[in-house]
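Input/output pair, single chain:
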Amino acid sequence: MGRSNATDPRMENEPQMKIVSLIIQLTVALGLLNVWLLRFNRPTSYRGGFSKSMPEEFAAYGLPVWVLWLVGALKVASALCLIAGVWVPSLVVPATSLIATLMLGAILMHFRVRDPLLKSVPAGTVLALTAFLLATTP
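Output:
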């Protein structure tokens, strides 16, 4: 006879994994909102090339200004979907997939302008967190 979920050792960690996933989901969302809404025109040590703001960073990558606004809109919308995903879980996988794709693009842009590897750490971290979410979200 099959085992019930109550005695399945794999199910014992399920509540903890849901909490960890929720924390990561909100961390990714709030991090994106911080970068795109609060730090948009502020310098950080992770900006591509020698740029001091988000518009300068996209210019350093050789991208037109409309790409800046498109990427920004996609990231802010995805972050809001991750927050809404606390109550509407069906939003989490599409938003997370889009963020992961955008983070891959960010890493490629850092390589394109031959940035030191350290400048790719934030995008790489978010990529790893989104991979975790995609692997653990039903």
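The CA atoms of residues 52 and 72 lie 17 Å apart. The mean pLDDT is 92.
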